[in-house]
Specification:
Chain lengths: ~110, ~110
C-alpha cells in the first residue's frame, strides 16, 4: 500500500524559511516522479512542483526561485525547501505520487504570519 | 500556461441522480487529464487518470471521458458518500494546473 507522510509544517514569519519532508513507502520510490500541491484555506488546489525520477524539477511561477524540491532515493524521502515565505504561501501542503497525483499524503499546514 | 475551467461551479443533486461535471482546457492536452474527489478536511483522492482510466479501488460508478480540450466526469448514481468537491487537473505540460473545482451537495 502506498503511504506518503508529510511533516515539517508550522508557523513562520514572513521572509522566513521552512523545510517540508515527505516519507514514502509501499512502492519503488526511485522509479516515480513525485509532486507537491497546496491548498490555501477555503481555496482550491494549486500545483507547486514536480520532480522526475532522474531529478529534473519543475515549479509554479508563484514559487520559482524561492522553493527547492529535492529527493533522496536512498531513503525514499522528498524535501521542499521554502525560502522567502510570504503570507500567500499559507496553505496545506500535500506530497503526491506522479505528476497526476495518483496517491496523496495527509498534508501539513504552513502558516506564514507575523 | 494552460487554463482549466470547470462547470458548473456547484450543483445540488439527489441520491440516485446521474451527475456530469465538465472540464475544459484552454488548449489541447490530448488525454493528460486527471480527476479528484475531496471531502472537507481531507486530502484529495484520485479517481481518474488519462482522462478515462479508473484508479485502482475506485468504484465503477465513476467514469471519465474526453480528449483534446473537453472532458467530463460522470457519476452514474449519486450516493451519500459522493457529496464532495471534484477537481480536474492537466498534466500535459508544465506548469500543471488544476480546475477551480465543482462542489456537489445534497438537494
Amino acid at each position: 500500500e502506498v503511504q506518503l507522510v508529510e511533516s515539517g509544517g508550522g508557523l513562520v514569519q514572513p521572509g522566513g524559511s521552512l523545510r517540508l519532508s515527505c516519507a514514502a513507502s509501499g512502492f519503488t520510490f526511485s522509479n516515480y516522479a513525485m509532486s507537491w500541491a497546496r491548498q490555501a484555506p477555503g481555496k482550491g488546489l494549486e500545483w507547486v512542483s514536480t520532480i522526475l525520477s532522474g531529478g529534473s524539477t519543475y515549479y509554479a511561477d508563484s514559487v520559482k526561485g524561492r522553493f527547492t524540491f529535492s529527493r533522496d532515493n536512498s531513503n525514499d524521502m522528498l524535501y521542499l525547501q521554502m525560502n522567502s515565505l510570504r503570507a500567500e504561501d499559507t496553505a496545506v501542503y500535500y506530497c503526491a505520487k506522479r505528476g497526476f497525483f495518483d496517491s496523496w499524503g495527509q498534508g501539513t499546514l504552513v502558516t506564514v504570519s507575523s | 500556461d494552460i487554463q482549466m475551467t470547470q462547470s458548473p461551479s456547484s450543483l445540488s443533486a439527489s441520491v440516485g441522480d446521474r451527475v456530469t461535471i465538465t472540464c475544459r482546457a484552454s488548449q489541447g492536452i490530448s488525454n493528460s487529464l486527471a480527476w479528484f474527489q475531496q471531502k472537507p478536511g481531507k486530502a484529495p483522492k484520485s479517481l481518474i487518470f488519462a482522462a478515462s482510466s479508473l484508479q485502482s479501488g475506485v468504484p465503477s460508478k465513476f467514469s471519465g471521458s474526453g480528449s483534446g480540450t473537453d472532458f467530463a466526469l460522470t457519476i452514474s448514481s449519486l450516493q451519500p458518500e459522493d457529496f464532495a468537491t471534484y477537481y480536474c487537473q492537466q498534466y500535459d505540460s508544465y506548469p500543471f494546473t488544476f480546475g477551480p473545482g465543482t462542489k456537489v451537495d445534497i438537494k
